[in-house]
Amino acid sequence: MNWSVDRYDLPLSNPFGISRETSETSETVVVELTHEGTTGIGSVTPSAYYDESAQSVAETLPSLCEAVDRIGDPHAQQRIERELGEQAPNQPAARMALSIAVHDLAARRLDLPLYRQWGLDPDAVPPTTYTVGIDSPERMAEKARKAAGNGFGHLKVKLGTDDDRARLDAVRDAAPDAEVRVDANAAWTPEDAIDKADWLADAGVTMLEQPVEADDIDGLRRVTDATEIPVAADESCVTASDVPRVADACDIVNAKLVKCGGLRPAMGLLHAADAHGLDSMLGCMVESNASIAAAVHLAPLVDYVDLDGALLLASDPYAGVPLDGDVFDLAAVSAGTGVRRTRDA
Length: 345
Fold this sequence. Notes:
The chain is an alpha/beta fold and 345 residues long. The protein has 12 helices and 15 strands. Helix 7 (190-202) packs parallel to helix 8 (217-226). The longest helix is centred in the first third of the chain and has 18 residues, at 54-71.
């Protein structure tokens, strides 16, 4: 089995702000595995919040690729995931990139799209949100207006500033018919979140994501109990083992491959959420289609989709699952995850 690891700094269309940082590039690591003439592609945009970087991922992937080569069979995915977990237990981003490449390779060897290999329904994919990052109220309004005009009926608005209300009002005025969800990225105290929940509800907000610090599960519970807006846990719910501790503190959990460590771990988190009576969402970083495409194949399992990361890039050398309006068209994928290189980075 041959493999390669490459790093890219992909430019964003606009600076992307959340409560704790603003990004202008997506630091991306791509891994390609070739076995008997077939190539699988995977990638990741690591997050410093979870103590990983493009450098750490690029340094770890060669040894993980060697482990996959020793196993020799891309269909031996349970064994591969176990081996990756043992070698890199604290590096889920590195495991994610290789997990995607292995799944893409295995499905392509069967000449099947990944969702069909799993037996999932391509018509059950919810529409994706389009994320409006923190900016001036005027720029946020402009981004919301453009997204709504391009057919996105669901907007995720990043908040966590000293003037959240002005920003949300600007978005609401610019896209009055859009469904709006709010993500504070752990920026508020429970008291702040409860105070804000009244005017968020008055503005028609339909989801409040991670209003409080990740480890403040009691605070998360207090916010959930105080508002009728469904509350989602993102930073508070990293892997399937976290689901029981947040199950009575939120309504929704957000699964991200970069947190979980790959496709099988993300599927495990979604099944755990379902077992605890929670709704689920698929989320992402601002990242290439080389990783977004794989996550889309899990979308029939969830209630909400937030997989717009590649849409926020100014340049992406990979194409993925096509969008029909604001819904990913999984049925258009002929084999694997559907990712393909369109040009050199």
